[in-house]
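Incident log, support desk, overnight shift.

02:14 A customer reports that sequence design results differ from what the structure should imply. Their input is reproduced verbatim below. On-call engineer (initials T.W.) acknowledged and began investigating.
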């Protein structure tokens, strides 16, 4: 997560393409965390996009939703080198 956020926050790496095998579950988790940590979205805004924004999100991956809901945003930002 830290490497991902650092990479997609570096303007030298843009535009960025984010995808996993299905393009829903892990991709959604990474993008939701980006929305919260970088874009300033609330978790309440990011999680619905994660679950409904693309291909069907599998409920088998609800642990990814929990990750977004419980991850310490300030810690992630600090570890990714954000000011």
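02:41 Re-run completed on a clean worker. Output:
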């Amino acid at each position: 997560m830290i490497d991902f956020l650092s990479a997609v926050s570096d303007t030298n790496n843009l535009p960025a393409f984010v995808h996993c095998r299905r393009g829903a579950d892990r991709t959604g988790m990474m993008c939701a965390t980006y929305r919260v940590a970088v874009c300033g979205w609330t978790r309440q805004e990011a999680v619905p996009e994660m679950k409904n924004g693309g291909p069907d999100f599998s409920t088998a991956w609800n642990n990814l939703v929990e990750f977004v809901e419980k991850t310490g945003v300030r810690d992630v930002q600090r570890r990714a080198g954000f000011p």
